[in-house]
């Protein structure tokens, strides 16, 4: 089983801003498992633990759907956590 999700990469400038916030939040004692800065992303859909066959099927289905989509503007606002904040 593979823990899988569909995500959008965050551009460098915004990734750096998020990484800075994570750096500050790491100073607060918690049980949070922080993501490393180069893996910061925007999750669109979390699939959970699925088989490699299912991952491959999702990939085959989505590739023609997303091919050719031009870059788009992304603005980040707010703060959240997975699976939830509290």
SS-based structural class?
Answer: alpha+beta
- The helix/strand order is EHEH
Would you tell me the overall average pLDDT?
88
Portion in beta strands = 15-25%
Total of DSSP H or I helical runs spanning 4+ residues: 2
Overall geometry: flat
pLDDT below 50 for ≥5 consecutive residues: which ranges?
A: none
Topology:
Layout: E1 2-9, H1 12-25, E2 41-50, H2 52-66
Antiparallel strand pairs: 1-2
Structural write-up:
34% of the residues lie in helices and 21% in strands. It is an alpha+beta fold and 86 residues long. Strands 1-2 form a two-stranded antiparallel sheet.
Keywords:
86 residues; single chain; 2 helices; 21% strand; alpha+beta; two-stranded antiparallel ribbon
């Amino acid at each position: 089983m593979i823990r899988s999700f569909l995500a959008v990469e965050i551009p460098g400038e915004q990734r750096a801003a998020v990484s800075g916030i994570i750096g500050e939040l790491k100073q607060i004692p918690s049980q949070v498992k922080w993501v490393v800065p180069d893996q910061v992303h925007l999750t669109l859909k979390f699939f959970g633990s699925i088989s490699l066959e299912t991952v491959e099927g999702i990939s085959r289905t989505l590739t023609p759907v997303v091919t050719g989509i031009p870059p788009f503007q992304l603005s980040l606002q707010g703060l959240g956590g997975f699976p939830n904040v509290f």
